[in-house]
Amino acid sequence: MDGRLRLLLIEDDPGDAFLVEELLADSGLDVEILHARTLGEARRKMSARIHCVLADMSLPDAGGLDLLREVLGLTGRAAVVVLTGLADAHLGVRAVALGAEDYLVKGEVDGALLARAIRYAIERKRAEESERRLVEARIVSRENARLERGLLPVPLIDDGTLAHHARYRPGRRRALLGGDFYDTVQTADGSVHLMIGDVCGHGPDEAALGVCLRMAWRTLVLAGHTGEGLLATLNTVLGHERRSEELFTTVCTMTVDPSRRSARMHLAGHPAPLLFDGSEVVSVPEEPSGPALGLPTDLVGDDAWPAADIELGDTWDLLLYTDGLIEGRIGQGSARLGTEGLVALAREARGAGASGDALIDALMARVEALNGEELTDDVAVLLLSRQESR
What angle do CA 274, 275, 281 make, to 5 degrees? Predict the structure, then answer.
């Protein structure tokens, strides 16, 4: 409440109305009283500025519990206190059950009791409103969480020699989805296609755009599109779907050959993956590469994102990640971890025997420890590992 308490008194008896005004004046309560003699007049005088409604249950144009229902329907956030001449305990219980904050009988209250009842009614109403908003917020939060979980990808892989692991951590607090996105799909010819991307920014609009691009990528891959042509099409999709021409997206795509001994990579302004060969860890060369997605389509063609062929060997791990993993600080200065720092951490983790989920968790834990706090940018990590079949 800001300033005086504002009360709407719904009472058709002038004597009773005068008595209420006198009681409240004697109580010392700082109150501004608006008086309505009928339900119709109360409708006209009711506003969001009213803190409490003090209502009789017998008016010329309505009465009883039906009157109370009408009053409750027009009060909004205001508390409602019944002040009536009907000393009926059963009616009082029903009135409170309908939503009234209190039930008072004329002639049984003095100024102090009436003022206290009004104050308590306003506080109870405020507490109920806060609880209602909290419940609504929790419901919306749960619905958003279910939606966001449903938008995270389920890898499509049918190869017993491959193990797929992923981690996703949005930069937004209390969010499950950010602007990073990833996916893995195996096609009918046996090739396994991996993709990871990063929409600049990490708000809800960027998250929606990331989901759009991921779904477009999966659809194109399942339809038989790969390589430079696929990225050109994604660039067109981005141009149509983004809310601002300044939004761009970095992407790394890889196609693992059916033999599982080589892969073809395309980089669109994205950090190159790490390749694990036993205990050795190297960063895949970042050249050749192309620009991030987001350029006008008339400035880029299918040859804007050249391919790089990578030899994998018999057993290997490929770690794809977004730049949130390497842009954390190392120490108190402004130095960043970078790709070389991530390679060093990966060698330590592999040397300690970490693999699969444990490898990703160890890397993220070390990166955050060096940063001194949780990472503020979105982070997505995808790890595909291959062991020789027995």
Answer: 90
* Fold: same for 5-140 and 153-386: no
Q: How many CB atoms lie within 10 A of CB 181?
A: 30
Q: Provide the whole-model pTM.
A: 0.65
Q: In the Cβ-directed half-sphere of 66, how many Cα atoms lie within 13 Å? A: 6
List of long-range contacts for 38-42, beta carbons under 8 Å, 24+ apart: 38/12, 39/10, 39/67, 39/70, 39/71, 42/8, 42/10, 42/71, 42/74
**In the chain, what are the domain boundaries?**
5-140, 153-386
Q: Which residues pair with 156 in a beta bridge?
A: 185
333: Cβ contacts below 8 Å, ≥ 6 apart? none
Q: Are 88 and 46 in contact (CB under 8 A)?
A: no
Residue 350: other Cβ atoms inside 10 A: 19
- Between CA 24 and CA 28 the distance in angstroms is 7
CA distances from 243 to 139, 176, 197, 237, 248 (A): 28, 21, 18, 12, 11
CATH topology of domain 153-386: Phosphatase 2c; domain 1 (3.60.40)
**Starting at the edge strand that comes first in sequence, how are the strands of the sheet with 180-186 ordered?**
180-186, 192-199, 249-256, 262-268, 307-311
> What homologous superfamily is domain 5-140 in, according to CATH?
Response regulator (3.40.50.2300)
Please tell me the distance from the alpha carbon of residue 74 to that of residue 76, in angstroms, as a whole number.
6
Note the Cα 47 to chain centre separation in Å. 34
pLDDT tens, the chain, 390 aa long: 456 889 999 999 899 889 988 898 888 888 889 999 998 898 898 888 899 998 888 888 888 888 888 888 888 788 999 888 877 778 888 888 888 888 888 888 888 898 899 989 888 888 888 888 887 777 666 655 555 555 678 899 999 899 999 988 876 555 556 788 999 999 999 999 999 999 987 677 888 888 899 999 999 999 999 999 999 999 999 999 988 888 899 999 999 999 999 999 999 999 999 999 877 899 998 888 999 999 887 777 778 899 999 999 889 999 999 998 988 888 777 788 899 999 999 999 998 999 999 999 999 999 988 888 777 788 889 999 998 654
User: Cα-flanking dihedrals φ and ψ of residue 231, to 5°?
Assistant: -65, -35
